[in-house]
Amino acid sequence: MEAKNILVNKNGQCCIADLGLAVMHFQDTNELDVGNNPKVGTKRYMAPEVLDDSIQTDCFESYKRVDIWAFGLVLWEIARRTVSNGIVEDYKPPFHDVVPSDPSFEDMKKVVCIDQQRPNIPNRWFSDPTLTSIAKLMKECWYQNPSARLTALRIKKTLTKIDNSLDKIKADC
């Protein structure tokens, strides 16, 4: 998943258009069809376990956790483009400041796995309650240990709570 592969329809609903690490999961047998190469997709968005070959390729949960990592990066991109206190950052992809524009596996492995770097959270976000909540959420998508990352359901519930608090702010104005 990367931001340019998320399509938005006129109702504001999003659809993921490119599934780089797509797998087929057969619920009745709990079997997986992972295809030929587990290392397809945009390197910049790859989770640590994909970059260092430690992903459990026979476990469906592993692929979900990889998606959570990438989702956290997409949230970071969205948050950077959100105006707060009249400020907004220019568009930049994740890790723009530490890897080349077309990073290699080795570039990303060094930054994400060895150095354990994460995208920078601008200080301005912490003066905005919504961006503070989003920053906390994305950090919980970026744990080095995949099993420590948030689940999709927890993310959905947290985003719903954030959205509801925004609705309350709008109603109070």
Protein described:
It is built from 5 helices and 4 strands; from the N terminus they run ββββααααα. The protein is mainly α and 173 residues long. The protein has a single domain (3-172), classed as Transferase(Phosphotransferase) domain 1 (Transferase(Phosphotransferase), domain 1). The strands form 2 sheets. It has a two-stranded antiparallel sheet with strand order 1-2. A two-stranded antiparallel sheet has the order 3-4. The longest helix is centred in the middle third of the chain and has 21 residues, at 60-80. The mean pLDDT is 87.
Compact summary:
This protein is mainly α. It has 5 helices and 4 strands, in the order ββββααααα.
Explain the layout of strands and helices.
Elements: E1 6-8, E2 14-16, E3 24-26, E4 31-33, H1 48-51, H2 60-80, H3 105-114, H4 129-139, H5 152-172
Antiparallel strand pairs: 1-2, 3-4
